Amino acid sequence: MSTHASSARVVRVDATDPDPRVIAEAGLLLLGGRLVAFPTETVYGLGAVATDDAAVATLFGAKGRPADNPLIVHGASLEMLLPLVAVLPPLARSLAERFWPGPLTLVVEAAPGVSPVVTAGLSTVALRVPDHPVARALLQAVGTGVAAPSANASGRPSPTTAAHVAADLGDAVALILDGGPCRVGVESTVVDARGDRPIVLREGDVARADLDAVDVVGDLAASPGTRHRHYAPSCRVVVAPPGRAGDTAADLARDARVGLVATTSAPEGVVEVGRFIDGAGLAAGLYAWLRAAEDVDVDVVVVEAVSTHGVGAAVMDRLHRAATATTRAQNEGPR
Ligand code: TXA
Ligand code: MG
Hints:
Blueprint: E1 9-12, H1 20-31, E2 36-39, E3 44-49, H2 53-63, E4 72-74, H3 78-81, H4 90-99, E5 104-109, H5 116-119, E6 124-128, H6 133-142, E7 146-147, H7 162-169, E8 175-178, E9 189-192, E10 199-202, H8 208-211, E11 236-240, H9 245-252, E12 258-262, E13 271-275, H10 279-295, E14 300-304, H11 312-332
Parallel strand pairs: 1-8, 2-8, 4-6, 5-9, 11-14, 12-13, 12-14
Antiparallel strand pairs: 2-3, 3-7, 4-7, 5-6, 9-10
Helix pairs in contact: 1-6, 10-11
The structure holds threonylcarbamoyladenylate and magnesium ion.
């Protein structure tokens, strides 16, 4: 894992009313081929101009991201993204009108000119108009699509603060715009919008129920990101049923150093890592708390499950992936 001391320039911006001079400078850096990290409503993104192959290649290198995992292109509006689309399917248009700006990514057939570096050679491209004043101002200033994966080192939890970005990417980034913590805390819902009904490729803040999505059983081959190894913290992650997290943690604490992320306070002998009140609260805090659990050096972190209502589905998806990845990593021995 690449957590090194950072020398990135971090500039604080007002999350609701960013200083236009700072935005203009960030825009010029992007247009000059540099990487700029910026807040969105979901997580921080690491941006490069989508038509600049050299910059996008630098971006893959900075994250240590496998070249076969395509990027989402961000725009300030649907109009700005239309040049990337071969033909806009009616479903994509209606979803964009309904949910943009917002935490929904639409996968559509790409126009011939879209770089294969961005799409990882697929015929499709993923598009999103984020709902964050800083992201929107920056995208407006750039005036063309910006490819932006989550601004973490590949294999780390997505960053929800500027400090997370700096810890993971350091001097690979020309500038980090610090707009404070992200509101949602988990990545956008990704849907294939080419057919008659949306197919969910990744759960997010826009819930399945609000999308009238097709249920896909089994193979999610269309979603390259799901093939890759998922974040495995250095400690084991145990998911406890609602209301049982404190007791589970206390049991485990008899022969391990245990941390707790739950709706209740930590029992004696257990380190309190995070407290939340509902699924949205766990979504907002989860990635920061997983990083914090590593920092306080617990053997196990127990996280209380939430209902899969709304953003809860996305949180439980990420949590189960982290839990499975740590179990698998431990079975495979040190890495
Ligand atoms: O909330 C978000 O989506 C954040 C913020 C920064 O916008 N971005 C983000 O990007 O999470 P990233 O690169 O970490 O995840 C993008 C996901 C991956 O799972 C990738 O495989 C999928 O989108 N994706 C990108 N292009 C695709 C395509 N053409 N077809 C299917 N999946 C695609
Ligand atoms: Mg990511």
